[in-house]
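Section 3.1: Structural characterization of target chains.
Under the original work plan, the team committed to producing a structural model for every single-chain target entering the pipeline before any wet-lab resources were allocated. The record below documents one such target. The sequence was received from the expression subgroup and is listed exactly as submitted; it comprises 208 residues.
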Amino acid sequence: MTTSNRQYAVSGAAAWITAGLAYLTLEAVAAEAFRPRYSYARNFISDLGIPSDDSPLAWLMNTAFCVQGTLFLVGAILAVRAVAPRKAGLFLTFAAANAVGNLLIAAFHSGPAARAEGTAWVHAVGAVLAIVGGNAAILAGSRVVNGWHRKVSVALGAFGLLSFMLFVIELKGSSALPLGVWERCSVYSITAWQLLTAAWLVSRRPTL
């Protein structure tokens, strides 16, 4: 890695770390204010983003979606500049899908009011783009790295997609685990990967 590429790597890592930590922190604050007490296992993530008396800090959760989606894409662009600019078209496409999905989730909410207004389907599309796009980006990104990072990336991406598939399947049936668990597994796989990859980018040694 050249010194110039090192700068891209550090900037990309900073974007991903900022996105991941901001998302988890803002989600936790919004969950703490939820009425009645919010359950990470039983409640959906999007419940925190519905403006209501139950979710007085919905704007904070929607900000978290926007920050995560935007900085995930920014970090992806910078990381590609640092590592493999000729091999990452598919990775960037999926990262962009994740960004668009998160912005849609923030702008269009779920719940009874959204269904009555006929906008709940936009939220659902956003969720698919964000979750599938993010986990697919992990798998696509694994193609441009080697060693332990590739193996961990494949494992996280596959785990995230499998969790989302089980979440969708069990939405209309009886679930072995609370649905909130499946949903969070499919989302946190993305957060875990971006934080892990940020550390990997920073740890790479520059060359002149």
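Residues 91 and 141 are 5 Å apart (CA to CA).
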